[in-house]
UniProtKB/TrEMBL annotation:
This is Riboflavin biosynthesis RibT protein. Signal peptide: none annotated. SUPFAM superfamilies: Acyl-CoA N-acyltransferases (Nat). PROSITE patterns: GNAT. It comes from the Bacteria. Pfam families: Acetyltransf_1. GO terms for molecular function: acyltransferase activity, transferring groups other than amino-acyl groups. InterPro entries: Acyl_CoA_acyltransferase (IPR016181), GNAT_dom (IPR000182). Residues 1-121 form the N-acetyltransferase domain. Gene3D superfamilies: 3.40.630.30.
Length: 121
């Protein structure tokens, strides 16, 4: 189940964000979370299965596009298609918008496109 971020998930979200290959300092993670908490265009979602949060996806939503800013999967669940599942769920949420990537997420989005040919991103 994809859940919208709320303040009670802060530590979980910071933990999942720390798996991304970016600056993992606590200050940088807190800055990222702050953007998701204060800017309506920054939207963060956590993937929960059973009682575990296993992934996170963050987007910046514009008028006609959304940018996949962050995507992270708990290492224990990698290789199971969780990242692709989250990308597809976000695409369903924003089906009227085009998906864009960042330097960090672009290659993953392209990989998902190759796997899911015929899907509009």
């Amino acid at each position: 189940m994809l859940l919208r971020y709320k303040k009670t998930y802060e530590k979980i979200a910071m933990g999942l964000l720390s798996y991304m290959p970016v600056d993992k300092s606590v200050k940088k993670l807190q800055e990222m979370i702050y953007h998701y908490e204060t800017d309506d265009q920054w939207q963060l979602f956590l993937l929960k299965e059973d009682d575990d949060f296993i992934g996170l996806v963050g987007v910046i939503v514009g008028d006609t596009t959304y940018t996949l800013q962050h995507i992270s999967v708990n290492p224990s669940f990698r290789g199971e298609g969780i990242g692709k599942e989250m990308v597809m769920k976000v695409q369903a949420l924003f089906s009227d918008k085009e998906c864009k990537g960042t330097e960090e997420t672009d290659s993953f989005i392209n990989k998902c496109k190759e796997i899911e040919e015929g899907t509009d991103f």
